[in-house]
Design goal:
Elements (H helix, E strand, L loop, with lengths): L1 E2 L2 E2 L7 H13 L46 H7 L43 H8 L20 E5 L6 E3 L3 H13 L4 E4 L4 E6 L3 H11 L7 E3 L3 H5 L6 H7 L6 E5 L16 E5 L4 H8 L5 E5 L11 H7 L6 E5 L11 E5 L2 E6 L7 E4 L10 E3 L9 E4 L2 E4 L9 H17 L6 E5 L5 H13 L3 E4 L1 H12 L9 E11 L5 E9 L4 E7 L2 E2 L5 H4 L2 H11 L2 H8 L3 H7 L3 H10 L5 E4 H12 L11 H16 L10 E5 L4 E5 L1 H12 L4 H27 L7 E5 L6 H14 L2 E3 L11 H23 L1
Length: 761
């Protein structure tokens, strides 16, 4: 039976038979099982019956983990495509090895009555399978078939009211495929929400989808029917194949095969495409009928959360979709597609969601007695983290909390996780930034519930997240953390984003950074990258010198057309020009100088992604590498800290612009120069601290480490010096992993305080 602690088995037999049972539990678990521990004890009960039975679940405090949704398994796939099977072409086939889990659960323990399948009574055939221990659908809670389970239908949005066609399932699929073939945009209700789909080879349909959805520039995800179809358009390594075909079935970012016949509008300015394979029978049936990939992007307006409900889709997607492929199995919990990228030979999570979340991770040694706590994460790419009984439970990707609907969904999921995991936090944790909505919510919740609130510095949380993911014990010596990202509030009240920290789980000390440069207009500098270019040029060489030496450059003409007098006045007065040691803004400044999206960034990190693409293309196609751009390392500021100063880099880059050096070569020289500067700074810091510091480990975190070229260059440099280098894999290096770091810092602080109290007594 299931109880609050997990699976409870009462077994009787010979000692040899019981030993064999225990061994097989560990060596032959079901495909989706993850055994955290097996505890045994002898009992005196006389079990008279030798029949195997599963008893009703026991209610009580829940300590079990809710399973993530899983891709359709090979057995169900074969069944759905086999005309001899009774679930032939049934869009909701599943078994104990696959299918919906988290997306349908309302309460725990996980039984059918507590899921959105409760409204569907099993037919006699499904009931027989459900009760048969020899059947792979034995106690599969979402079990269903075309007789008793959910069904699909097609609604066309060309008329008001909607034209609803409830026909045979196969006819609905055929009609949907016909619409896609004709260039229509179809809203498809899937596993964790709606997708917007169109033919990915149809440039006009792709453009129309971008326009209607107001998703300008940001890459679209694609779905191909199988691995062979994916390989027509992209290179697929053995590890990438493993990820694509795994039970988690994430979107995997793949290098394109040059001219592959797909429209540029799928991923403008980039040479990678995000592909996934069909992960439900519904998607399988759709893609089987098409020899071309489909765009499969989230069903929402740009920046809003994915829509899950039928009525909401009819209202909010009617101006985007030409038709709706609906089904009547409710979605209890919204969940996006996960995104993975292979870098330096390992899979790296960029977004943790379907197939991976909820993710329960045992905390490192020393955290066994960590208190129950709730960490609220950051503002962008947000997620939250529950810590309970020595394990961290990370939520799925929530999105950017600046959007009202996303913030509402964030609060809904906080309540959901609290209920599912019977979680009663003793401590709340948030980012130190007072304007983050997650921080404001944490403060309000702490005041309401009378709970202590710990506010954690942003970049310390990044480094602690990396340490915890890599299993560093609580009492480990400090690491040198390198946090490169967009921005976070520093302990001195300024904006940080290119930091070198000596850190353990309890504390961190800033020992170096990038040189702070003004963000002219504050957050407007993120939206308009040319502002960063101008600020860097003014700081590095001065506008007068730039004018005298480089007035013949297109960059000069471009910047001269901006309201420079106003910007000059802002810099002189210090009005709305906060200093930021941000690596993300440095990438923006360089990409805009080279001519990549200088006027406006259509999404966060656009310039950096395009700059990385240019560099990788150049390095892959040219034998000319050129020297890395030079950076200086100077003692700057009060108190004096070593800072990476980009002034020499700007002189070299402007000379290259003047000499009309190819943009790809400039991008490559910048990446290598930055990696060299970070490595040199690390070497200087460690040398100044001396061997008594005991630091032999470097931890890399922050969104800039989603850049393959930067990450791989630094790993090679650190390896050459014999340093151990920790990086992210299971959780994102971006702010999606921030909550884990907040949680372990709060837990370590609490445990240290307890230890001190005991020592004081």
């Amino acid at each position: 039976m299931n109880d609050g602690d997990g699976v409870l088995i009462h077994a009787t037999g010979s000692e040899q038979a019981l030993s064999r049972l225990l061994a097989r539990l560990e060596s032959e678990p079901p495909p989706l099982a993850r055994i955290e521990s097996i505890e045994t004890q002898s009992i005196s009960d006389d079990l008279e019956s030798t029949a195997f039975s599963i008893k009703d679940s026991l209610l009580g405090e829940n300590r079990t983990r809710v399973t993530a949704d899983a891709c359709v398994c090979p057995a169900c796939r074969e069944e759905v495509l086999n005309p001899q099977e009774r679930r032939y072409r049934y869009p909701f086939a599943n078994c104990t090895h696959c299918g919906p889990r988290f997306s349908i659960v309302k309460e725990v323990p996980y039984d059918r009555a507590r899921t959105t399948m409760a409204d569907f009574s099993m037919c006699a055939d499904c009931e027989a399978e459900y009760r048969d221990p020899a059947d792979r659908r034995f106690h599969a809670q979402p079990i269903a078939c075309s007789v008793c389970g959910p069904s699909i239908w097609l609604e066309k949005a060309t008329e008001t009211p909607f034209t609803v066609e409830r026909t045979e399932q196969a006819e609905v699929i055929a009609a949907t495929v016909q619409l896609l073939d004709q260039g229509a945009i179809v809203a498809i209700r899937g596993l964790g929400g709606f997708h917007l789909a169109c033919d990915a080879t149809n440039a006009e349909a792709v453009h129309r989808l971008r326009t209607r959805k107001a998703r300008f520039g940001k890459p679209f995800a694609l779905m191909a029917r199988d691995l062979e179809a994916t390989r027509r358009y992209c290179h697929v390594s053995s590890l990438e194949r493993e990820l694509l075909e795994s039970s988690s079935a994430p979107i995997v970012l793949l290098r394109t095969r040059g001219t592959n016949g797909l429209p540029e509008g799928l991923a403008p300015g980039l040479k990678v495409l995000g592909f996934m394979l069909p992960y439900t029978p519904l998607h399988l049936l759709l893609t089987q009928e098409m020899d071309r990939p489909l765009v499969m992007t989230s069903g929402n307006l740009s920046s809003e959360p994915q829509i899950t409900a039928v009525e909401e889709a009819r209202t909010r997607l009617t101006d985007i979709a030409d038709a709706f492929l609906m089904h009547d199995r409710d979605i209890a919990n919204r969940i996006d597609d996960s995104v993975v990228k292979v870098m330096a030979g390992r899979s790296r999570m960029l977004r943790v969601a379907r197939g991976y979340s909820p993710a329960s991770t045992p905390l490192p040694e020393g955290f066994e007695k960590a208190p129950s706590l709730l960490a609220y994460g950051g503002e962008l790419k947000s997620s939250f983290c529950l810590i309970k009984e020595g394990a961290a439970i990370m939520s799925q990707h929530q999105g950017d909390l600046e959007d009202v609907a996303t913030f509402d969904d964030f609060q809904h999921n906080l309540k959901l996780y609290t209920a599912i995991y019977d979680h009663r936090p003793e401590i709340l944790v948030a980012d130190r930034h007072p304007e983050y909505l997650s921080t404001k919510l944490a403060r309000a919740d702490a005041e309401r519930d009378g709970l202590p609130l710990l506010e954690v510095q942003h970049h310390h949380a990044h480094i602690a997240s990396c340490m915890a993911e890599n299993g560093l014990p609580l009492e480990s010596p400090p690491v040198l953390g390198i946090a490169l990202d967009g921005l976070g509030l520093g302990t001195d009240g300024t904006i940080w984003g290119g930091e070198f920290l000596v850190a353990d789980y309890q504390s961190s000390r800033r020992v170096g950074s990038l040189k702070p440069i003004a963000m002219i207009g504050g957050v407007q500098a993120i939206r308009e990258p040319w502002r960063n270019t101008y600020a860097h040029l003014v700081e590095s060489i001065g506008w007068k010198t730039f004018t005298e030496r480089f007035s013949d450059l297109p960059l000069f003409d471009h910047l001269s057309g901006k309201p420079l007098a106003i910007l000059e006045s802002m810099l002189a007065s210090g009005v709305n020009t906060p200093l930021a040691s941000s690596c993300g803004r440095l990438f923006d400044a360089v990409s805009a100088a080279i001519g990549l999206c200088p006027d406006s960034a259509l999404f966060e990190g656009q310039g950096a992604m395009e700059l990385e693409t240019l560099a990788e293309e150049w390095l892959a196609s040219s034998e000319v590498e050129g020297p890395a751009y030079p950076f200086a390392i100077l003692p700057i500021g009060e108190p004096t800290l070593p800072r990476i100063d980009p002034t020499p880099m700007w002189h070299a880059l402007l000379d290259d612009l003047h000499a009309e050096v190819p943009a790809g070569l400039m991008a490559a020289r910048f990446h290598r120069g930055l990696a060299d500067a970070v490595f040199e700074m690390t070497t200087i810091i460690l040398a100044e601290m001396g061997p008594e510091s005991r630091i032999t480990t470097v931890a890399l975190s922050g969104g800039c480490f989603q850049n393959s070229l930067l990450l791989e260059s630094l790993l090679a440099l650190f390896e050459s010096k014999g340093l151990r280098c920790l990086t992210h894999s299971r959780f994102p290096s971006n702010d999606g992993g921030l909550a884990l770091g907040q949680g372990v810092i709060a837990a370590a602080t609490h445990l240290a305080d307890q230890k001190q109290d005991v020592a004081g007594k």
